[in-house]
Amino acid sequence: MKAGVVTFPGSNCDEDLAYALSLSGFEVSSLWHKDSPDLSEFKLVVLPGGFSYGDYLRTGAMAAVSPIMQSVKQFAGQGGLVLGICNGLQILCEAGLLPGALVRNNSLKFICKDVALNVEDTNNPWTSHLKKNDTLIYPIAHGDGRYVTDEPSYNAMKEKGQILLTYKNNPNGSAHDIAGLCNETKNVFGLMPHPERATDLRSQDGKKIWSSILNSLKEKSA
Amino acid sequence: MKILDTSPSTKEIARELGLSTEEYFHICKNLERNPNYAELGIFSAMFSEHCSYKSSRKYFKRFPTTGKRVLQGPGENAGILDIGNGWAVAFKMESHNHPSFIEPYQGAATGVGGILRDIFTMGARPIAAMNALSFGTLDFPRTPEIVKGVVKGIGDYGNCVGVPTVAGQTFFHSCFNRNPLVNAFTLGLVRHEDIYRGSASGAGNFVVYVGAKTGRDGVHGATMSSKEFSSEGELERPTVQVGDPFTEKLLLEASIEVMKAKLVVGIQDMGAAGLTSSSFEMAYRAKTGLELNLDLIPTREKEMSAYELLLSESQERMLLVCTPENYEKLEAIYSKWDLHAVKIGTVIEGNRVMMTKNGEEVVNLPVELVTDPPMADRPSNAPSDLKQRWFFDRNKMLVASLDSKFQSLVEDINFGNPAPLVEQYDSMVGNRTQSDTFDDSAVLRLRDIKNKTLKLAMKADCNPRVTWLNPREGGRRAVAEAALNVALQGATPIGVTDCLNFGSPENPEVMWQFQEAIEGISETCEALKIPVISGNVSFYNETDGKPVHPMPMIGLVGLIEEDLRLPKNNFFSTQLELGLLGVPEGGLGGSMLSFTWFKRDCGKPEDTDLKALDRLLKFCLKLKEKKMAYAVHDISDGGLVTASLEMAFRSPHDSIGFELEIPRETDVDGFLFGETCPRVLIAYEPVERGDLENMSSRAGVPFLHIGQTTDHHELIVKQGGAKVLKADIKSLKQKWDSRWKMFF
User: Which chain B residue shows the shortest CA-CA distance from A56?
Assistant: First the structure.
C-alpha cells in the first residue's frame, strides 16, 4: 500500500508519520509542496502536523494554496483517501476539503498532553476497526485546535456520521467536543490529536486507525 | 560629527565600547597602528567576556574532557559523544539571561534558536531540548510577566522548529528578581560521517552567507551580556534580537541537507557577535585568512555601516565554506528551502581577515590578535561572611512543631507542579519521547537506529542555595543529582555540558565561587568517569552590584542499551512498600526547609560522598535488570517529604496515601527534610523486600524500609508507633497543582 506524506515548509511531523505508517505496513513516499504531481499511484495521502509557513497569516492558510494542494484536491475528488493531522486538519479546512475552521485554544495557550477521545462513528474507512464509544488515548500538541462551525453545519455533519472523534475532557473549547471529522463522502479525514505519536510508544492506540485504513483499502481493492 | 567605519579610534571610544585602556593599548601595539572604528567594533565584541572567556578560560583545564566516547570536546560549537552503531550525539547548553530580563519573550525564544543552531551546525539533527529557568519571586512585580514571557518564548520557538522540550528545572528565588536565568540545552543526533566543524579551510574556497537577512537588531548583544545591569536596564531593549522559528526550521532542514550531500567544508552559526565571531573563529580553527566583501551581505535595512553589519546579531543566519565546484549545488538546496545563500568572500592563505565595503578596505586584522585576547587575571577570595551563612539556630527549629515546619515547606513558591509551564512545550514531536515527567530525567528512544535498542536519558540540575553556601558542594551536587536522575531511569551517564551563571568576575568573591564550583563539578565528573564535553559561561549576572546565587547548571546525558521497561515515577499501587536508598538521615544545611523556616539560605550543606554516590549509581543500573515493577525518585529539594508527595501526586489512584515510619533515635527533621546527597526513594511490591535488602547490602548501599502506600489519601508520619504528622494529600495536591498556574 503506497502512502504519500506531504512536506510543507515548516511541517515537523512528516518524519514521525512516515515512521508510524511504515511500521504499520505502508510503503511511504515524501511529497514536496512545490510540486503538483498526479497522485493516483497512492492509496493514502497525508498532510502532517507542524507549522506550515510558520503559521503566518492563519494556520494552514498559505499551505492550502500551495501547488501540491491542487493534486491533493484532485486526488480527493476522485475518492482517494486524504488524512490531515493537526496542522494537516487546519490545512484541509482552509482548503475547503473539510467544513469548519480551527481557531486559538480557549486558554490562549499551546497545549501538549495525552487526551482521551471517544469514538463517535465507525461507518467509514478511518475508524472501522473500532467500536462506537471506544476510548483512544492520543497526545495533542497545538495552539490553534479549537474547532468551530455553525449549528446547521454541525447538525448536518452529525446526521451524516461525519464526526468521528470527540474529546472526553474538552481541552481547547472545540464546538461539541469535536476532535476529528470527515467530509460527506468520508474519504477526507482530519483530526487534531496525533495517532502517529501513539503507535509504538506511550500508547498503541494509533495502530487502530492505521489498521482501519489498511483494512478498508484492502476491502476496496478486493 | 558622523563616525565612519574608517574613522581612527581613540582610547575614549574604546572605553565606550567596553574595552579597557590596557586592552586598547595591547591592540594598537600589536597592530602597529590604531584600529579604525569598524575594527574596534570587532575587538570590543571579541574581547567581551561573553566571546573571549577571558576571566574563565584558564580554569577550564580543570575539567576532565577525555573518554572513549568523546569525538569532540570543548572548543567547538558543541561537544560530541559516540553512542555506538555509527551514531553520535552532540549537545550543549547556553544562557540567554540578560535578553530574557529585558524582553522575556524574544530573549528566551532567541536563546532556544541560538542553541539549536549550535547543534545543527555540527551536522546533528536536534531531537531534544531542556531548559533550566531561575526566576525571581512574587515580591518583584515583573516576575509573573517574566515567567509568562519566557515560557511562551521557549514554547513558541521550540514547538515551531519541531524539537521536543523534554526536561528541565524551574526555581524561584528573590536573588533572580532582576536577573532571571534562562539556560537552554539542545541535543542532536548525527552519523559519524556527517559531523561538521566550524573551520574555514582550503585557500580558494568560497565563504557563503546563508539564512535570514541582516538588520540592525542585536548590534553589540555580546557586549551587553558582558556587563552587569543597572536598574535602567530596560533602556537596552534595542540590543535584544528578534527570532523567527519558521526561518530557523528552513535553515535547519536546508543545512542538514547540504551537509548530508557533502557540499560543505565548514559551517558555523552567526550567534553572539554575528558575522564577526563566525568569520574570525572559522579562520582561527583552520589557520587561514579570509577576504570578505561586505556589500554582498543581504540586508534588511538600508545604508548599514560595516560596523553594524559586523556586529548585528540578527537571528537565523549561518556562515559556511564550500569548494567553488559545490557552490551552485549548495545554492540550489538553500533556494529549494526559500533561503538566501550568497558568496560573500574567499578563504585565503595567511592569517589575516580583510573586508571591503564600497570598494574600500574597512577591516584588515590578523586573526589571532582578535581571537586570542589577553586573559584577565582576576583575584579571588572566599566571602567574608561564609561562617554567618553557615550558621543557623538548630534549637529554634527543634522546639517548633513538625506541622509548622511542614506547612512552611508546602507554602513555598518552589513547591509547585511544573505542568502549567511544561504543557506549553511540545514534548513529543519527533516520536522519540518515552518519558517526560520534566523534573525527572527524560527518556528518548532513538527510532532512527535500526536493529538495536538505544535510548537516551537527560537531565538539567543545579541547586543555587547549596552553591551559594558552598560552591564546591553546589558543583558536586549538580553533577551528582543529574547523574542520579539519569541512572534511576536505567541510563549510564556518558557526558556533561555546563552553563556557568555567575555574578561579575571583577568581584573576587564571585571568582572564588566560580573556581570552587568548577572544582566540585570536576571532582564529581572524575569520580563518576563522565567527561565534560562542552560549556558556556555567563558572568555579570547581577543588578546594582548584587550578584545572583551562583548557578553552575549541569546538563547530563545517559545511554540505555537494553530494551527494558522503564521504572515508574509514582505510587502505582496502594499496596507498595517504601524504601530509602543511600544516606538514611540527611543534613539540613542549605535545605529548602532551612530556607522556608528561617527565611534565608543558611546552614552548611553536607558534602556528597562521591564513593557512596558511585555505588548507588551502579546499584540503580543493576536494579533495571531485575524483573520487577518499581518506582523511584531522587530526593533533593524539600527532602523525603516532597519526593514522596510528588510520587503520590502522580499516582493514578485518587485515594492514594502513604505512611512513613521514622526509625527510633533518628532526627525527625533530618530524616524528613534533609537533602544530603545521595538519597533515593523507592516503591516496590512487598514480596521484593528481601531481595532488595540482599542486593543493596552486596552493593554496599544502605537500604531502609520506611513505610508503605495506603488508600486513605493521607500522609501519616510515625516515630516509635506514635503519629507525629498527618496531612491530607488531596488538599496538598491542590496547592501543588495551582501554585504555578497563577502565572498563566
Answer: B246
Cα–Cα distance, B138 to B571 (Å, whole number)? 32
* Backbone torsion region of residue B289, taken as left when φ is above 0, otherwise alpha when ψ lies between -120 and 50, otherwise beta: beta
Residue with cell 539564512: B211
Q: Model pTM?
A: 0.95
The sheet with strand B125-135 has its strands ordered as B70-72, B79-84, B87-95, B181-191, B125-135, B165-172
Please list the alpha-helical segments (H only) found in B142-217: 143-161
Residue B361, H or E segment: strand B360-366
Residue with cell 515560557: B151
Q: Is the pLDDT of residue B235 over 80?
A: no
What amino acid occupies position A154?
A: Y
Euclidean distance between CA atoms A178 and A197, whole angstroms: 20
Q: Hey, what amino acid is at B571?
A: F
Residue type, B27: I
Cell numbers found for residue B626: 531485575
Interfacial B residues in 422-481 facing A (CB < 8 Å): 423-434, 445, 447
* Alpha-carbon span B560 to B437, nearest angstrom: 18
Q: Which of B160, B424, B427 sits opposite A54 (nearest CB)?
A: B160
Shortest CA gap A202–chain B (Å): 6
Q: Taking 80 as the threshold, does the pLDDT of residue B1 lie above it?
A: no
In this prediction, residues A133-159 reach a mean pLDDT of 97
Distance between CA atoms of B132 and B181, rounded to whole angstroms? 8
> In angstroms, what CA-CA distances link B577 with B641, B662, B672, B730?
16, 14, 17, 21
**Contact of B69 with B529, CB cutoff 8 Å:** no
Query: Residue B216: pLDDT above 90?
Result: no
